[in-house]
Automatic annotation (TrEMBL):
Domain of life the protein comes from: Bacteria
TM stretches of this protein: 45-71, 115-136, 148-168, 180-201, 213-238, 267-288, 333-357, 377-396, 416-437
Keywords, alphabetical: Membrane, Transmembrane, Transmembrane helix
Catalytic activity: a quinol + 2 Fe(III)-[cytochrome c](out) = a quinone + 2 Fe(II)-[cytochrome c](out) + 2 H(+)(out)
Class of enzymatic activity (EC top level): translocase
Cofactor: heme
Domain Cytochrome b/b6 N-terminal region profile: from-to ranges: 19-245
Keyword Transmembrane helix part of the UniProt annotation: yes
E.C. code: 7.1.1.8
Organism in which the protein naturally occurs: Streptomyces pactum
Protein name: Cytochrome bc1 complex cytochrome b subunit
Length: 543
């Protein structure tokens, strides 16, 4: 007989149970775990995009802690005498020297640096793709507008965290980026010089910028982001997960697998998969080789200088903007830099406020837990593609010199192409995307009414050849007809039943026009009704 059985016979619970009862009586762990660990999550590949962001963030934190043990955020000048021969005898900052030491003397240091940098790129890229998935499927609608804002803030903070992070080695490339940022600050009217002096502790480059970036990079921004991640996950649990339309799925239930043990097992395996892919990329693809670039010197600029991809948009705006200047009251306003830095946050802000704009246009105050298929929201999908088009065009502008040298093109031609495409490209993308969505809606309607094409040709008694269609399965039929047919808002009559004319506000007129543009007759294809389906399947109006 085991000791556990003997303990039970004496009327005394095992130590493990007593400890569990002790903790549950003080923390309520059992009740919370019983409720939340059986929470159901739907299964779809696109839901993994958010997990890629979460796991990349965890990897960034772990590798960042390791790197802080060896990095010295100081701009004091030293002479290098380390193992990397080409740099021996070169004067550099302690920050750059410690980066070289991490790369060549710390065991696993270079791999950790590369994992940290690649994970940061994947983290920001994963957030952008994840937000686009949420945008195109309408997962930002009530009650998830606040969670959308949390994700938007995470994206913005991730961009700034990445910028402060790759600026820390104090190499020639990152120093050029800091110089670019200082030029941006100086272009701000009235307060630009003050902001630059406060940030740099004096004239550029000063001796304080790297220590300040270090504190911001490892303490301030990660702390805020960690809080936002926790709040984001809490709201995901609280609101329950969204799901795509399907048999048995409604706005009031969730069809899927429980968190424990199924979903946690999948999530754990997926974490190691993400970690393995990032580690493999870091092991085979060099990124930010500071030893080949050299330490920063204010009188030098590295050739082919490019920021990380998520800041290429801002770089492109500045590069293709004409060098306009205005002299007012003895002061010069550099519009060639100031206008781009105004456009950049506006383009980002368009993502953050869109859920509230759409809610205002539609007047829809209901809760939504069933996702839209992008084709069933043509105007929203077209706006998203237009935004992405503008972003990609400016990425080309941010690397106009590399496009010119690699493809043997004129840099002036590339610059003018970007200037024109920034305004024309999104409009063309909007029109084309909307027409594609409407075409897909028509195809879905035909499939519902006439079934799936089988490729079998049949000859009728009177000699006509037709293709045989077979009815769609019920689950596919449900998917194609589950979406709502929204109706545009209409203005109330300007004259009431008593003949009294009321004043219509401009905001009401604008709202009605936008609603008509989003849900009018030309903006969506009526889905097949049950009456049309029964009429066709009964033989009326059909071969």
């Amino acid at each position: 007989m085991s000791n556990q059985d003997n303990t039970r016979r004496r009327g005394k619970a095992p130590a493990g149970e007593r400890f569990a009862d002790y903790m549950d009586g003080r923390l309520g762990i059992y009740g919370a775990a019983k409720k939340n660990l059986r929470k159901v999550f739907p299964d779809h590949w696109s839901f993994m995009l958010g997990e890629v962001c979460l796991y990349s963030f965890v990897i960034i934190i772990l590798t960042g802690v390791y790197l802080t043990l060896f990095f010295h955020p100081s701009m004091n000048e030293v002479v290098y005498h380390g193992p990397y021969v080409p740099m021996q005898g070169v004067r550099m900052s302690e920050a750059f020297k410690s980066t070289l030491d991490i790369s060549f003397e710390v065991r696993g240091g270079l791999l950790m640096r590369q994992i940290h940098h690649w994970a940061a790129l994947i983290f920001v890229g994963g957030m952008l793709v994840h937000m686009m998935r949420v945008f195109f499927t309408g997962a930002f609608r009530k009650p998830r507008e606040i969670n959308w804002l949390f994700g938007f803030l995470l994206l913005v903070l991730g961009i700034f965290t990445g910028f402060t992070g790759y600026s820390l080695p104090d190499d020639l490339l990152s120093g050029t980026g800091i110089r670019f940022m200082q030029g941006v600050l100086l272009s701000i009217p009235l307060v630009g010089t003050y902001l630059s002096m406060f940030l740099f502790g004096g004239e550029f480059p000063g001796t304080d910028i790297i220590p300040r970036f270090y504190s911001i990079h490892i303490l301030l921004l990660p702390g805020i982001m960690l809080g936002l991640v926790v709040a984001h996950l809490i709201l995901v649990f609280y609101h329950k997960h969204t799901q795509f339309a399907g048999p048995g799925r409604t706005e009031k239930n969730v069809v899927g697998m429980p968190l424990m043990p199924v979903y946690m097992a999948k999530a754990g395996g997926f974490f190691f998969l993400v970690f393995g892919v990032i580690a493999f990329i870091a092991a085979v693809a060099t990124i930010n080789p500071v030893w080949a670039i050299g330490p920063y010197r204010p009188d030098q600029v590295s050739t082919g200088a490019q920021p990380d991809w998520y800041l290429g948009f801002a770089e492109g705006l500045v590069r293709v903007m004409p060098g306009w200047e205005i002299n007012l009251w003895g002061h010069t306003l550099v519009l060639g830099v100031f206008i781009p830095i105004v456009i950049f946050p506006i383009v980002l802000l368009a993502i953050g406020v869109y859920p509230f704009i759409e809610s205002w246009i539609t007047g829809d105050k209901r809760e939504h837990h069933i996702l839209d298929r992008p084709r069933n929201a043509p105007t929203r999908t077209a706006f998203g593609v237009a935004w992405i088009t503008a972003y990609l065009v400016m990425l080309v502008g941010g690397g106009n010199d590399l496009w010119a040298t690699h493809f043997h093109m004129s840099i002036n031609a590339i610059t003018w192409f970007v200037r024109i495409a920034f305004f024309v490209g999104p409009v063309i993308a909007f029109i084309v995307t909307r027409r594609i969505c409407l075409g897909l809606q028509r195809r879905d309607r035909d499939k519902v009414l006439h079934g799936r094409e089988t490729g079998i040709i049949k000859r009728l008694p009177h000699g006509e050849f037709i293709e045989v269609h077979e009815p769609l399965p019920q689950d596919q039929m449900h998917t194609l007809t589950a979406h709502e047919q929204h109706k545009p808002l209409e203005l109330a009559p300007e004259v009431d039943e008593n003949g009294v004319r009321r004043k219509v506000k401009r905001s009401e007129k604008l709202r009605a026009r936008l609603s008509k543009g989003m849900y009018g007759e030309d903006a969506q294809i009526p889905k097949a009704t049950a009456e049309e389906y029964h009429e066709i399947t009964s033989g009326h109006g059909h071969h």
